[in-house]
Amino acid sequence: MRTRSTTVTVGVGPLSFEDVVAVARHDVPVIISPGSLAEVRRSRQVVERLAVDSEPHYGVSTGFGALATRHIPVERRRQLQRSLIRSHAAGSGPEVEREVVRALMLLRISTLATGRTGIREETLQAYVAMLNAGLTPLVYEYGSLGCSGDLAPLAHCALALMGEGEVRDAAGTRKPTAEAYAAVGLTPVALAEKEGLALINGTDGMLGMLVLAITDLRRLLKVADIAAAMSVEGLLGTDNVFAADLHQLRPQPGQALSAANLRTLMRDSAIRLSHQREDCPRVQDAYSLRCSPQVAGGARDTVEHAATVAGYELAAAIDNPVVTHDGRVESNGNFHGAPLAYVLDFLAIVTADLASISERRTDRFLDVARNHGLKAFLAEDPGVDSGHMIAQYTQAAIVSELKRLAVPASVDSIPSSALQEDHVSMGWSAARKLRRAIDGLTRVLAIELITAARGLEQRAPLQPGPAAAAVITTLRQGGVGGPGADRWLAPEIETAVRLVSSGQVVEAAESVVGPLN
């Protein structure tokens, strides 16, 4: 198992997915490399020369957006920066999750550390200190159009850097920022020319949520294969269709990886061997069983495409204007979130489809016309007991919601800023709905797992393969009960969700079959 780093150093190459997760979820502290600090100081000198220039320069001596035609006198420029942040910190709705805000902050720090934004070294170090102190600015659900960066979310973080607004401290207590700063010995920053723009003109919220989503989906894809293998086994399906040579006929890389997982997971199953004979009347399994590698494989390939896009963005320096390596200050459109918005939407589509095929496998376990000898709804005493009937309803409700969440956000655009910003990406919205979709997929897979486990146990005295047995043991030891009379299922479903989310289900399977793809 990989050892988590004790620090994440920014400025020695692009951040990795592991770096983002370490800071966002595990509070690993951040430091800036000396080389990055030197570049930050060099580019700041460029901005300071422009600040005294008689010619107007966007973001340095002008207003912003549709107000960029106004030249701002020197004595009003610090007020300009403060006003920018205060006016842009206009989010609304529920608070955004702590891990998302921390990822957003780290990624903005990463761009600031490139030296392409013209920010001062002391401002960058103050941002790092806020992050390392565990202070999390309150960021809200609504406010970003995914173009000109995630303006409102980033502005709420910049507001905290100024000592204003509200934060949650490391213990999660909501406080005025000034009070939280005093408690940890930090000093607010008085922003100078260009710094307000540098703090808010990035795709960091979208990117942070994309990196976290890819991390979660890579784990859930393994869970999807584990659940599928247990369902195929419990429904007396065949693993012949997962043979390597059959999948070589269609050389989709994710499909081959998923099929290999299924072969590994179904190895040495007594249940499988019990019906692997010539007089077995089964010719072909239903699509939800037989085509599992094709669906999960396509999802895998989509996730890896999204990871490629995220990798490009992790290597980017997003700001407008930017200070180039040769000292020019140039306007650009790199803050447009389209590349991220597209893959965030694409991931919501495959998330919905993974959940859809999982729900169909669960439903087969409950129907006596299709479950090959199991009790109706896997109930102990059908009629008196309802078994997993309503657990499948819960799955169905979630799958229906996931289909709605799969409607792309990136096809929409609403003009803003007096038509200066007349085409936007809606990437933040795509990321927000993807987070809800991933939560839904986790719950759907958890219900399939507990249903498949119950079905496999009803095949006794036949025993499942080692992988399925290990997962069932983990479920039972975690508090998910086995077959029996009806009981309150909601807590057991939540336990299974926790075991999926924590990685314990994957660890259980891999403990007996080795690493899965």
Structure, explained:
The chain is mainly alpha-helical and 517 residues long. It has 2 domains: 8-202, Fumarase/aspartase (N-terminal domain) (Fumarase C, Chain B, domain 1), CATH 1.10.275.10; 209-275 and 282-413 and 424-513, Fumarase C, Chain A, domain 2 (Up-down Bundle). Helices cover 55% and strands 5% of the residues. It has 20 helices and 9 strands. It has helices at residues 17-26, 34-51, 77-88, 98-112, 121-132, 151-161, 177-184, 195-200, 204-234, 244-248, 253-265, 270-274, 287-290, 292-314, 338-366, 389-405, 427-457, 466-478, 490-501, 504-513; strands at residues 8-10, 30-32, 92-95, 136-137, 140-142, 166-168, 174-176, 322-323, 329-330. The strands form 4 sheets. The chain has a 3-stranded antiparallel beta sheet. Strand 6 and strand 7 form a beta hairpin. The longest helix is centred in the middle third of the chain and has 31 residues, at 204-234. The chain is elongated. The chain starts with 7 loop residues before the first strand and ends with a helix.
